[in-house]
Amino acid sequence: MGRKKLKIQRLKDMKARQAKYSKRKRGILKKAKELSILCDVELVLLLSSPTGKPTLFVGQNPNGLYNILQKVSNMPFVEREERHVSLYEDQLQKLKDELIEKSKILRDLKNLEIIVYLNQIEFMEDYLIESLNELRNMKNQLAMEQQSSGRDLEVGLSISMKLFTHFSTICKIPNI
């Protein structure tokens, strides 16, 4: 018997969310360790549980955190943004596909010669209004989330620098 495909969406129940986090955290930490060993890469993984408890994983190199933070801090902001993996790529692709589908429907609806009944026009009008409202709402939501993620990135970099300072004092790494 195979596994059931899990729909990826936020779990509403806090206990279920914590249990899922705990199981998946073990898996991602195992994968991170394997990647670090197999590919000989410097790897740092920082997670925060649903309850707010942080987990820090540093790969094989004990100075990995320092090295990665040093590289990131020396990187120009524009390059950091380009390398930033967008969390919204899937949503963007979904919206593009939906736009293509809606455009096709609009092209079909432009053929006014096939309209025979008033209810066809009413359906077309309702469909267009509903579609436009949905697209506007999605666009506004994505714009707000992207603005928020930009702020989160700045906060994350600030936290990274604080971690760097903290760990450099613990590990007695000289400041550069």
UniProtKB/TrEMBL annotation:
Residues 78-148 form a coiled coil. GO terms for molecular function: DNA binding; protein dimerization activity. InterPro entries: MADS-box/MEF2_TF (IPR050142), TF_MADSbox (IPR002100), TF_MADSbox_sf (IPR036879). SMART domains: MADS (SM00432). It comes from the Eukaryota. It is found in: Nucleus. Residues 1-61 form the MADS-box domain. Keywords: Coiled coil, DNA-binding, Nucleus, Transcription, Transcription regulation. One of its GO terms (cellular component) is nucleus. CDD domains: MADS. PANTHER family: SERUM RESPONSE FACTOR HOMOLOG. This is MADS-box domain-containing protein. It comes from Gossypium darwinii.
